[in-house]
Amino acid sequence: MTRPWSRTAAVFSFSDGASAASWSDDLKKKIDANVDLHFQNETQVGLVVGVIRGNEIHFWSYGEKNRGSGIKPDADTFFEIGSITKTYTATLLALEVEKGTVSLQDPIELFWKELQETEAGKITLQELASHTSGLPRMPSNFVMTDPENPYKNYDAVLLTEFLKNYKAASPGPYPHAYSNVGLGVLGYILAEKINGLSYADYLETNLLKPLGLRETKTRVDPAVQPNFAQGYDTFFSLVPFWDLNVLDGAGALKASARDLLRYLEFNMNADSSLIGRAMNLAQAQLFATASKPRTVGLGWESRSFGRYNVIEHAGATGGYRADLMFDKTEKLGAIVLSNTDLVPVCVLEPVFGVACEIPKFQSVSAAVAGKLVGKFESAAIGLKAEIILRNGQLGVVPEGQSQLRLFAKSQFEYAVPDAKVDVVFIPSASAAVDQFELKQSGQTYLFERRWPFEN
Questions:
Q1: Closest C-alpha among 284, 271, 278 to residue 94
Q2: Please, what is the Cα angle at 323 between 325 and 26, to 5 degrees?
Q3: Given a cut of 90, is residue 325 above it in pLDDT?
Q4: Mean of the per-residue pLDDT values for the chain?
Q5: What's CA 92's distance to the chain center, in Å?
Q6: Is the pLDDT of residue 277 over 80?
Q7: Per-residue pLDDT tens digits for 50-66
Q8: Listing from the earlier edge strand, what are the strands of the sheet with 435-440?
Q9: Who is most buried in 140, 213, 275, 430, counting CB within 10 A?
Q10: Could you tell me what percent of the chain has a pLDDT over 90?
């Protein structure tokens, strides 16, 4: 594929320059306003937005790449893009199909001899790429040994053990069910089992180098490439880049906004070249998903978004969020990269003319926060949860789960935006609040203070 725009170019304009400038100026004002609300809400550290319409390209940067530094990220700053990696892996599969190396209907036991005569061995390459394999989201023998880098010790030995012992809960065919392990397996088979290469080398040779994507990597060494955005969780604690190990194909990539928008551009204008045909094959939608009318192809998903029909994928890791979407017919696309583990909602919606409202969160005094912290339990569902104060921010820790930051809608009403959870504390005459209600998916659960928890 020919490169559609220069690496050094920041903006290309339509022949009607005044019209192009008017569109981009108006769009930037809307994006600026929404980003400002995020910073008022203290939900983000740094953001880079990239937009393309035809040949017109823009990058806009906000916040800081390292909290407290005062230095903005830019179009060449590395962010983790998480599960957007899955679209690269699926495109590599489509490339092998176009070369005639494999068929989408090939069972994986053809390439992984240890899986012959096993249930997992019957899974096809298409089923892995389209999340219709029946595999769970994560392998059953996955153990998080390091919460800040959870995948780093999950290796090929453990993955092989999981697949050899895998038993589906029911007979197939299976509906779409998002599976990190499925795309991780796909990347491992394509790279290691078929081509005898690491995922990093296989990706570099077959996709990144041919497309000139020099700012996309599975590993980023800060000593060699210092222009990276430091990742933060929602409490603004530092989080490192993740090492995906054998599951690299599911989410290992780090990329700059410039490279990610270039990747979007190639996909949006996929031509009749070998890689162009592979991109078109990967984008072709195959199945409906549970969240209709969303559909899924090989890695990519599609849905109606305002008046547009977008192809898209999002990514999330411990300290980063990313989103990418484009309309092939209208030649309109956009990306956003964040170095905070919270979706920057409503940032790309203005690009596609979609109405979106950012909730307004408040600050809570130490006196109020002190009344809320403690250990609680819901007798009805047998779940314990602790309300904590971390880095000056309130959070909730459901038993056996990760810490979740609470964002205040009022002194006693809180939200966990990405989990779509509301926590409403019930004021009492005592110094401490003794009850709260957890509201999720139309259900309400009452939690009462229990101090301390019984062993």
A1: 278
A2: 70
A3: yes
A4: 92
A5: 19
A6: yes
A7: 999 999 999 999 999 99
A8: 404-405, 393-398, 383-390, 374-378, 443-449, 435-440, 421-426, 413-416, 407-408
A9: 213
A10: 85
Distance CA 288, CA 297 (A): 9
The half-sphere exposure of 311 on its side-chain side, counting CA atoms within 13 A, is 26
Q: Tokens 């906000």 correspond to what residue? A: 62
Mean pLDDT of 74-102: 98
Whether 360 contacts 350, CB under 8 Å = no
222 cis-preceded (ω within 30 degrees of 0):
no
d(CA 1, CA 284): 19
Within 8 A by CB and 6+ apart from 210, the residues are 1, 275
| Tens-place pLDDT, residues 197-231 | 999 999 999 999 999 999 999 999 888 889 999 99
What's the pLDDT at 6?
32
Q: φ, ψ for residue 313 (rounded to 5)?
A: -160, 150
Amino acid identity for residue 369 in this structure? A
Q: How large is the average pLDDT for residues 100-116?
A: 97
Give the total residue count for the chain: 455
- The domains found in the chain, sorted by start residue, are 17-352 (3.40.710.10), 366-449 (2.40.128.50)
Q: List, in sequence order, the alpha helices (H) in 167-294.
A: 180-188, 195, 199-203, 209-211, 248-251, 257-268, 274-283
- Write out the H or E segment, with its range, that includes residue 421: strand 421-426
Q: Are 321 and 344 in contact (CB under 8 A)?
A: yes
Please provide the DSSP assignment of 275-312 as one string: HHHHHHHHHS--EE-SSTT-EE-SS-EEEEETTEEEEE
Number of other residues whose CB lies within 10 A of the CB of residue 356: 13
In whole angstroms, what is the distance from residue 406 CA to residue 243 CA? 28
What is the C-alpha separation between 212 and 216, in angstroms, rounded? 10
Q: Give CA separation, 232 vs 175, 246, 300, 410, in Å.
A: 35, 24, 27, 25
**277 by DSSP, 3-state: which?**
helix
Distance CA 74, CA 8 (A): 13
Cβ atoms within 10 Å of 136's Cβ, excluding its own: 18
Cα distance between residue 448 and residue 376, in whole Å? 5
Each residue's pLDDT tens digit, 430-455: 778 999 999 998 999 999 998 665 54
- The strands making up 216-217's β-sheet, listed across from edge to edge, are 78-80, 254-256, 216-217
Residue matched to tokens 């809400």: 41
Report the pLDDT value the prediction gives residue 147, as an integer from 0 to 100: 84
Cβ neighbour number for residue 116 with a 10 Å cutoff: 12
